[in-house]
Design a protein that fits this description.
Butyryl-CoA Dehydrogenase, subunit A, domain 2; Butyryl-Coa Dehydrogenase, subunit A, domain 1; binds flavin-adenine dinucleotide; 4-stranded mixed sheet; 3 domains; alpha+beta; about 50% helix; Butyryl-CoA Dehydrogenase, subunit A, domain 3
Amino acid sequence: MIDFELGPELQLLQQTIREFARSEILPHCARWNEEERFPHEIIPKLGALGLLGMTVPERYGGSEMSLQAVALVVEELAAVDGSVAITVASHNGLCCGHIVLAGTEEQKQRYLPDLASGRVLGAWALTEPGSGSDAAALRTRAHRLPDGSWSLSGTKTFITQGSVAGTYVIMALTTPERRQHGITAFIVEKGTPGFRPGRVIKKMGLHASDTTELELEDVRLPDSQRLGEVDRGFVDTLKILDRGRITIAAMALGLGRGAYEAALSYARQRHAFGRPLAQHQAIQNMLADSATELEAARLLIRRAAWMHDAGQRVTLQAAMAKLYAARAAMRVCDRAVQIHGGYGYTREFPVERALRDAKLCEIGEGTNEVQRIVISRQLLSGGEVLVSGVP
Ligand SMILES: Cc1cc2nc3c(=O)[nH]c(=O)nc-3n(C[C@H](O)[C@H](O)[C@H](O)COP(=O)(O)OP(=O)(O)OC[C@H]3O[C@@H](n4cnc5c(N)ncnc54)[C@H](O)[C@@H]3O)c2cc1C
């Protein structure tokens, strides 16, 4: 039985992060986004709160949290700013998460303490100019040299923290004929000869998040930089994505909630035809639909996170939570802009930024279409039972 009430520890965490986001992020994030600037100054504060080591065990300096806790943190950050939320989500879930999952003891000791404290940021690179959803079309190649070391060459794109990270997890083809089952992960440090961030990508939203290409040209790595077994990179990626999708769903929920709360407040104070907007039934309907959809998204996320924390497989539940929460966030943010009227279309109110930021949740870590493929595969394979008891 799932207890949907947050226990005292999670309530305290939620309150702490909410206050932190309101005092340390809210006063600055509109400017960071306007300037399209990565907010380096927030990183030590996130690190001090333990928000950069949420997936890292305490013995490596982390604050290892349950996925329910991580989802709450990301929701609270996203309710104020999507860019900070995606920075925290990708650093923790993808880069740290992959090293925790597949790293050797030596790799964990070497990389995790700096990542968990925020002294170094992490990035994780699977996507390439010619391969996103179809990861098997990846072209970055890792050749094994006679002495057992590796040479990596290729180009990655859309990499979050691409130019500001110090530690990168990079996926490369080691056995091309095995397609996605021939992919291996490597840890690459900033400054490694032949490795450099490429073009900064100008985006629709998340303007204070760093997104770049990465160039690899005969990057020489000892075998000790290989992360996990040869040809197991994609299998490990799928495990990381189950968790990551719940976090992106939480980001969508936070963005939607922030926009909904702004719309609720605006509808109470703005008047039209002699009464507050909130007293017009059309506006009430929009608020009712938004609150209901956010609540449904929250329940899907909480259930998926709870199952994950209980050690259960959540491929189906994570995909459902992400698909629903991302769609809901788009509808909720769109209504929030509508409720703000002309002001909602300006950059003076945060709802237009939330709408632009929320779009990423329908694309990153698997598009809506990919989530539907994942969901239908799980259902058709007959192995999954829904809450209703229906297989
Ligand atoms: C802001 C941002 C940050 C990102 N951060 C990272 C990161 O840190 N690391 C990383 O590795 N990647 C990152 N990504 C990449 C992201 O994961 C990919 O963009 C995403 O997986 C989609 O891949 P694609 O862009 O190549 O689209 P494509 O795969 O080319 O898809 C294009 C369209 O076709 C649809 N489509 C594709 N295949 C099918 C199919 N079989 N059936 C039906 N429809 C299909 C898709 O749903 C989509 O609508 C980021 C992207 C963005 C925008």
